[in-house]
Amino acid sequence: MFLKSHIKSITTWVCLGASLMSCSTSTQEQTTTTDLHLVDYVNPFIGTGEHGHTFPGATLPYGGVQCSPVNGVSGWDWVSGYHISDSLVVGFGHQHLSGTGIGDLNDIIIIPTAEKKTLNAKEQDRTKLSYTEKYSHESELATPGYYGVTLENSGIRAEMTTGLHTGFHRWTYPATATMPSMIINLGFAVNWDGVTKTDLKKVDDYTVEGYRFSAGWAPDQRVYFQMKFSQKIVDIRTQKAGARLVAQIAFDKTDGQGQITAAVGISSASQKGAAMAVKKEGKGFDFDQKRIAASNIWEEALEQIKIKTTDKKAREIFYTALYHSKIAPVTHSDIEGNYWSADQKVEKAEGYTYYSTFSLWDTFRAVHPLSTIIESEKRNADFINTMLEHFDATGTLPIWVLAGQENNCMTGYHSMPILADAVLKDIKGIDAEKVLHAMKVTSMQDQRDLKAYREYGFIPFDKGEESVTKTLEYAYDDWCIAQVAKKVGDEKAYKTYMKRSEGYKPLFDKETEFMRGLNTKGEYRTPFDPAEANHREDTDYTEGNAYQHSWFVLQDVQGLIDLYPSKEAFVAKLDELFTASSELTGANVSPDITGLIGQYAHGNEPSHHIAYMYNYAGTPWKTQEKVREIMETQYDNTPEGIAGNEDCGQISAWYVFSALGFYPVNPAQGVYVIGSPLFDEAEIETSNGNTFTVIAKNTSKENIYIDSITLNGEKLDRLYINHKEIMAGGTLELVMSNTPNRTLGVNTPPPSNKL
Considering the entire predicted model, what is its pTM? Predict the structure, then answer.
């Protein structure tokens, strides 16, 4: 574990507050001590290396503030603002993306300083900024809800924690500080972000406020802020160049411990909302108490799943994965319930929390299904009502929403499975009729190649790019619409969308046994290379190739199997996916295709369900083999421990499900396909207050196969469970072995194309 090796060097900083939970240098080393908390197993540095794109800073579950370091580099591996390879920091932002493939945010960047600095509002090169600081990873400490680091140039210790709408900072200055102060740079931007308007003004001797408007991946982002300091402001030096603004705020002194604290409230709606965040969340705050409160909130969130295992590494990976699965979506409505809406208006969320950062192309697969099991019914309903409000504002359901704004990134319309999942699982507080109406309107638009999809029953490659992926995804999403129509009694819509859900069939080429681009003349694209993986242009596939995308028929796996000459041929093609050469071809290979086992790419989401498809074809022991191999080879408890972009929790949620022993191949179906559980025991506290326990007897690195299975004492000859069985509580017991049971579940595959 990256953090463990540095514990001794940073313990003094952990122990600054006498009320902190633990000051032991050995607690991170132990795995069986009863006084350990679940937060002690979380390592926020996992995913900050390679292409994981996570951030190590402080936030709360689904929190509206993420306080984290900003290295100040524009680059693919810095989309969260931070990468473990770096050792320079330009400040600490208050909004960050977790694991995405595109960079934005890093808003409201501040950094403490010990002396007067030269200001240059135009400068965007971090090496030319007077206040850029060096730091060592030896001095970093990150735990759920807390981040701290020593700034080597100035000797200042910078620490941060958060509330739901407020960031809390503590700066410990060296005795040599000639001007205890801080710098706020509202103009600095990295990656896709670009500032459009800024303001900063003094409110009183302890308070400043302002705003930062920007355009980037979020086309019209607004952040209002207020900062209240523990020490008196004696001077504010400001420089502005166009929309860019930078200022140095100096204080008259530090306290008796050489410290200054700051509360930073934010709002997307108004200056008043930011001020109210400081007033309510930051009034008279004590940093250590806020840090403990944040840790306790995370502890409660992690306690939703309790595992028993002697595998220390797997425990750390698991709880970090559970932690990462709860960072997004983020709270977007402010402390008064107001938010900047997708229609560029200030709206108010009445009776619910409005969320944003919906990476739906990724998170519909596992993040949201996990949420429906363990999060409160209220939170799940709020996710859905946020999507419906987005529909009211824009006329379509969300695709990829950031800072309340639609950026239309990625293919499909994957709000459909999330909405369907909630309706079909009877989540309270949702208007099913309105859900169906929004689904119909969105699916009947002409944008995003939907006109061609309706006209031909698939998207011909001479009518649109990424035609195979788009067709397969629309077909699945339309199946989801059909199920909601059936639920509310709209038989006509049910039949219409079930027919549309068959759009995958024309694309299957029986000769090559791949899904291939088809044109309006009924001709497959030639030449054809299943390993070709061009990135988003001149391709029939999105961030992938024919090997990876030909399996996206979540709604009708049996229908896909039936396109093959036999089940054996289907299984042979699955085997080929995992054993083919990992070489990718093409003029512009997508960087998102990572975590390769053969041509299976675990670092990108289209592959995530595939290992579980063996269960449908009568060879479930191969699912058990492949799932264990993926968990073993594609995850680690190091900064490089995530195989690809974390994508707002999806890669982590896959691990959470798979380690528990099951996975939602069709996320809206309410069926979970069993793989190979990793832990001796796992207790899942469901949202309705029941406990579902998974016991895996004799599980080990060798004993990966399921020999027998019982549910609540009743022997099962199936390798799937349904949502109602989980939510009712009870015990799923699996006896593990080092040899496959080639009869268990072979003749009882998971249901396909039905609920």
Answer: 0.95
